[in-house]
Structures are given as C-alpha cells and as structure tokens.
Amino acid sequence: MTTDDAARTATDLRDIPEADCDRALDLCYSVFHLAPGDRTRRHHEELLRAALRIGAYDGGQLAGMAGAHRRTLSVPGGQLPCAAVDFVSVLPTHRRRGILGSMMEELWRRCAADGRPLACLWASEPAIYGRYGFGAATELCHIEIDASRPLALRLAPDSRPLRLIDPAEAPAALAPRYDATLALRAGRFTRDESWWRCGALDLDGAQMDLPANGFGAVRVVVLGAPGHAPGGYAVYRTRGAGDDRPGVVSVGELEAESAPAAAALWSYLASIDLTSTVRVQGRPADDPLLHLAADRDQVRVTGQEPNLWLRLVDVRTALTARSWAAPVDLVLDLRDTALPANAGRFRLTAGPGGATWEPADEAPDLSLDVRELSSCYLGGTPLRHLAHAGLVTEHTPGAVRRLDAALQTELLPFTGENY
After folding, report:
1. Which of 68, 305, 316, 385 could form a disulfide with 83 if both were Cys (CB 3.0 to 4.6 A apart)?
2. Which amino acid positions bind acetyl-CoA, per UniProt (predicted)?
3. pLDDT grade for 124, boundaries at 50, 70 and 90
C-alpha cells in the first residue's frame, strides 16, 4: 500500500457502485490476507454499503479502494464529524503508482464537501499514513489480572447488586452510561443502535465467525437494580480451562460512573468460577484500576501501543471547536503538504472562552507539521515530547509549555472500539 507520488498511474478515481461491493471486499481480503466466514463477510458488506467508497479503476479492473464511515468523534469540550477511514487496499500489481496518494486527495475533497474537519484510522502501516498527516492521538494499554485469588483493591466496591442482562436488551440499558463518557474522554465515537448491536455486542455473530480460541458468546453485567440507570457495566466473553491453557475472562468494554463502581465490576470479573485470568483488550493509559489495585503484581500492564490515528483536515474548524484548559496566544508556522489551505503562519488565540485561528505575519513562536498538531489535538500526546524528539521547533522560549498547558485534558483520550 506504499506509493511513489512521482510515478502517477492513469487510474480513474470514482465512486464504487453497490454492484462492485463484492469485488471491493475481495480486493480488501486479498491485500490483508483474510478469509472471513459468511457472517463476517455479510457484516463487512453492510459496513461498506453504508460508507463513502472511493475506487481506483484501471480500465475495468478495481485496482484500489478506500472507504470512510461517517462517524462523530468526541473532542475536548464537544463532538465533531469525522471520516473514519477503512478498507484501504491497493493491488500488489499496482503499488508505487501513486494510487493511495490519489485516493487520499479525493478523501480530503470529500471531507470538505461533507463538513468533516477530522479523519481517523487504525494504521496497519504507520510509516505510510504519517506521510498523509495522520498522527497517533490516543494510546491504549493491555491489562492482565491474576484471578487465581480474590482481587485485592484499595477501596470498597460499590454495594449495589450486579446482574446479567440479555445482550439484546443491552443497547438501551448501556447507552446512557456510555454516552456520559463522551464529555469526559476525547477520542470516543458516538454510537447508534446499529453500532451497539454489531460492534460492542456482536449480536449478529460476525465476530464469533472469526477464530475465537474457544471463547463463548458475549455476556453483559450491569451494576444496579432493575429499573435504575446502571452505575456501570462490562461486556465480556469467557473460555474454560483446557489441558494447556487457563480459564480466561476476556473483557471487551467496561464503563463505570465512579471508582467504587469500577471496583465492583473488576471484582466480579476476577471472581468468575473456573477462570484464573482476566485479559482486558484495551484500557486508557490512565485507567483507575492501575491505582485501585493493592498489588500491582496481580494487575499487570502487558502492553501499551498507539491506538487511533487522527488527521486535522480543516485545522481552523478543529481548533476553534475544541475547549482549551488555559489561555494561550502564539504564532504557529504549520506545514501541510497535502492540504495547502492549512499551511502557513497563523495566530492561535485560545482559552476557556473559545479560540481563533487567523493568518499572521509575525515571526513564529513554534514550527511544526500538521501530523504533530494532529497527535496533540485530543490532549493525549504532550507537545513537549515531540519537541524533545526534534519534531517541533520552539522559536520563543516557553511556547511549547504554554501550548501544552492549553491543550491539556483532565483525562487522557481513549478509543476503545475498532470499526
């Protein structure tokens, strides 16, 4: 999927009609070496049909494709429309012909026409997408709990009852608790019932159609009595012990209104009979569990990695739409080779009352690429780390520190769901 923009091909870019969706999926599966079952393929077909679809045709052959889901992403202080890029594929016979670059250029045009100032993706090859202005904006950590003994915590769990509910009833029950997180953490997608059913809960079984290593169907536990709004919930699967493997609880999602509520849910998950390990697919890097645990040998971070990659497509709209933690008034010299309208020297004046982003003639306080600004936008990547790495140039002493203070958020951004 790499490109050589100096060697442009004569492929024709156009919308992929619904009649070509099967061909498009075959292309994607071929490039990513996938062989999904029928249910997963039907799920992908539904996603692709609802998505924006850009095709690169070489004569009658579909040589490349890029899709984008129309999603809404939480940002500090609000929400913004976002193009969630997916299905990006180029035939191996057509690599290094500029096809990916052409599709990205067309995507930027579609974002502008559709009023989407942000684009995001999960980077299969990060070295490629950095060239198009995407930067790693959120991180997740993988956690493993030793459940062979009771989970030792430093505070008492919430005493409300825990109960299992029918996953089919879960979207209506869980949505208010999930929606409350949108204002607390940036990097989260809003969900409609379809995304709940097919994504978080897998009610159509598409995820079970993939190799599941013996894990059973999804289960949902909520904290609180019937008829009351849940104080928290967890979505998980279980696998019994085998000859050469432990019994495992695999946690897909956990949300709680407070630390005691989270303690109740984690204690429950670590106490399920015939299991001795809890594996958590992804949690925020500042997850309270890491401080709640009385014994950090029992709760271990087994990995940490970049999660959502973000691209500011319309810098002015993105910067003026988010909230700011502290006043800042700086001139930024911004590079953006793919979108010249973003490039140049601008004055950012921002604070708790709002922000402006206007062209400036003064000497810059900072110089940086849109990739770095995209990484910092949600508040998860400190600008000073990029400056220490030589990726941001500070012309005015203290400018990095002042912009860092303005971008800061109370909680780190986190993206728990893939699409």
Report:
1. 68
2. 88-90, 96-101, 124-125
3. confident
